[in-house]
Amino acid sequence: xxSLFDNEARSxxxxxxxxxxxxxxxxxxxxxxxxxxxxxxxxxxxxLGDIKAESRPGLLRFRPLRQILVYWLPWPKGxxxxxxxxxxxxxxxxxxxxxxxxxxxxxFGTRNPSAAWAVHPAFGPLFGREWGVLCWKHLDxxxxxxxx
Length: 148
Known about the structure:
Helix 1 (7-18) runs antiparallel to helix 4, helix 1 runs parallel beside helix 5 and helix 2 (33-48) runs antiparallel to helix 5 (128-145). Helices cover 49% and strands 3% of the residues. By secondary structure, the chain is mainly α. It has one domain. A two-stranded antiparallel ribbon has the order 1-2.
């Protein structure tokens, strides 16, 4: 299972981010590439506790369902509403936002998975291992959305 705690998986994500083309249209969804970069950075900021998220009640908070979604099911295209906290950062300069995403990926990936992690808006409290897989899947999903 890929995770941002794995050096090879993290390196692969960095290379894919570097291959992004800012003006390339999305294969699905409503975000443009620049908005998507900021969205991915915001998810990492939530996991790291830089952006505070409120856990909303719902079925996704139940561990068995969460485990299925985090570890087994593919990320659905355009089917999951975006938590407002994951749309916090407005795009600024492309290079600045891409560099911020790279730095957040490294900061996340070098953090101890056993440390205390922030609450996810939909899934509630997550262990570091869950965050590592979830963030990798989210990055992979959106990088595929833009052909990277």
